[in-house]
Design brief:
The chain has 12 helices and 12 strands. By secondary structure, it is of the alpha/beta class. The protein has an 8-stranded mixed β-sheet with strand order 6-7-8-3-9-10-12-11, sandwiched between helices. Strands 2-1-4-5 form a 4-stranded antiparallel β-sheet.
């Protein structure tokens, strides 16, 4: 097994607000190996995006702050690095595709200026060579007539085109790790398929490691090698795609899979997990999923279970696998 290119260990990212301290990421540990696609899944508010933003220290301060843990990239801890040192990593060794390209691209600069700036900053090439490289990147991500698109502004492009521009910018310096935060949100299904196919090709052609943040289990099944399931700021299950879909251990994972519509089944209503994600605070005790779980036990309400490996490379955070079934409420 190769050493992880990214290893997050006991990460805590908290937000300090008027209603108190919110542990958005509460002791998360995960890893990504070179050339691997890791899917990070969970419903809105579980801490997926905050985890991905923490990797590049893009959490707005205030109100957010990394309060503990380490983020190792190729063995180097990113957390203590200064902003000047981080600029050498961002967009170069680690790139990110953001959820909404319209808010991530600068409306005052053309597509060519924004991608070219990244190339010139990290590769030290001339303005002319940067423009040539930008055209090549736009062509690589499937944009027709890149020679003219390069001089257009973000508002002149469609949603799918803007997302392709974001990907072109992200891969312009051939990163070793690509973080994709909900890259197909708000795109129609045809464009979604094209964007996912593009990310898959990048992974296969350049062996770029990918950390894919999504709530779509269909995307996970199609794209990923391993899956990390998050709930309320914590990792609740982790394993290969096969294990997660065929032998899910955590009740939350089972609920997510059960809620996916299936073409061969006739249902009047789709299954949904009852209740809502809890409001996070530092005084929480017990399992975060206990109030929504059909298998809840008295112990679940009092003590938080540890993330333990129950099968080879398949971990779960649940008392259900350590307690006799007759104790279930």
């Amino acid at each position: 097994m190769s050493q992880p290119i990214l290893q997050i260990q006991d990460l805590h990212t908290h937000f300090f607000t008027d209603r108190g301290e919110i542990p958005a990421v509460d002791g998360v540990s995960l890893y990504v190996r070179p050339g691997e696609v890791l899917g990070v899944v969970g419903e809105s508010g579980c801490g997926k995006s905050v985890t991905s933003l923490s990797v590049l220290k893009l959490i707005p301060q205030p109100p957010g702050k990394i309060t503990g843990g380490s983020i190792l990239f190729k063995g180097q801890d990113i957390v203590p690095l200064k902003e000047r040192e981080l600029r050498q990593i961002r967009g170069n060794a680690i790139s990110m595709i953001f959820q909404e390209p319209m808010t991530s691209l600068n409306p005052l600069f053309t597509v060519g200026q924004q991608i070219g700036e990244t190339v010139r900053l990290h590769r030290g090439v001339s303005k002319k060579n940067a423009r040539v490289h930008t055209v090549e990147m736009l062509r690589k991500v499937g944009i027709a007539r890149p020679e003219s698109i390069i001089d257009e502004y973000p508002h002149q492009l469609s949603g799918g085109m803007r997302q392709r521009v974001m990907i072109a910018m992200a891969i312009s310096c051939n990163p070793e790790l690509l973080i994709a935060d909900e890259p197909t949100t708000a795109l129609d299904v045809t464009i979604q398929a094209q964007i996912l196919d593009l990310i898959r090709c990048l992974n296969e052609e350049y062996k770029t490691a990918v950390m894919l943040i999504t709530h779509d289990l269909g995307v996970v099944a199609e794209m990923c090698h391993r899956v990390t399931v998050m709930y309320a700021g914590k990792v609740v299950e982790e394993g290969s795609v096969h294990d997660i879909f065929k032998k899910p251990l955590h009740p939350y994972t089972r609920g997510l899979i059960k809620s996916v519509p299936r073409m061969k089944e006739q249902r009047k209503r789709l299954f949904s997990i009852p209740g809502n994600v809890p409001i996070l605070n530092t005084r929480m005790k017990g399992c975060r999923f206990a109030e929504r779980c059909s298998d809840v036990m008295p112990l679940c309400l009092e003590q938080l279970p540890e993330l333990k490996e129950y099968e080879a490379a398949h971990s779960c955070r649940c008392w259900l696998h350590e307690t006799p079934k007759e104790e279930v409420i």
